[in-house]
């Protein structure tokens, strides 16, 4: 039995003042992914069945390369934000949650940078 008042029990458990920003960034990235996906997938669709040289030429085009880099960056940021919400909501052990949040940031950053590097390498090779 606790002799704390209602206010005493909730002090320190309130808002961290980051929820609204997180919410909006997640929504903005979701909306941005729609046109980016369409603009990124069209050149890939046109390149299906083409030779390696034709695909390299398609993504050597600065517009296609920039759109694909933006798509990769926004997609991995959106993924990181979504996984963060899932981890915060469903992982209850503090040490495991902290490790999972760090791994989430590390892996999303690593894979996103790997994709950006791959597209940049193709864009600057041609």
Kindly list the characteristics that best describe this protein.
mainly alpha; transmembrane helix; 5 helices; SQR/QFR_C/D; 3 helical TM bundles of succinate and fumarate reductases; elongated; 126 residues; Succinate dehydrogenase hydrophobic membrane anchor subunit; 0% strand
Briefly summarize what is shown.
The chain is mainly alpha-helical. It has helices at residues 6-10, 19-47, 52-60, 62-90, 94-125.
What does this 3D model show about the protein?
- It is a multi-pass membrane protein.
- Pathway: Carbohydrate metabolism; tricarboxylic acid cycle.
- Membrane-anchoring subunit of succinate dehydrogenase (SDH).
- Helix 2 (19-47) packs across helix 4 (62-90), helix 3 packs across helix 5 and helix 4 packs antiparallel against helix 5 (94-125).
- This protein has helices spanning 6-10, 19-47, 52-60, 62-90, 94-125.
- It starts with 5 loop residues before the first helix and ends with a helix.
- With 126 residues, the protein is an all-alpha fold.
- The mean pLDDT is 91.
């Amino acid at each position: 039995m606790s002799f704390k008042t209602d206010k005493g029990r909730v002090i320190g458990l309130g808002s961290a003042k980051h929820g609204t920003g997180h919410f909006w960034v997640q929504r903005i990235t979701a909306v941005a992914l729609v046109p980016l996906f369409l603009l990124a997938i069209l050149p890939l669709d046109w390149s299906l069945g083409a030779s390696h040289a034709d695909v390299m030429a398609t993504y050597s085009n600065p517009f296609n390369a920039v759109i694909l880099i933006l798509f990769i960056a926004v997609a991995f940021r959106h993924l990181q934000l979504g996984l963060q919400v899932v981890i915060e909501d469903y992982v209850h052990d503090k040490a495991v949650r902290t490790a999972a949040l760090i791994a989430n940031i590390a892996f999303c950053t690593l894979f996103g940078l790997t994709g950006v590097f791959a597209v940049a390498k193709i864009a600057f090779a041609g």
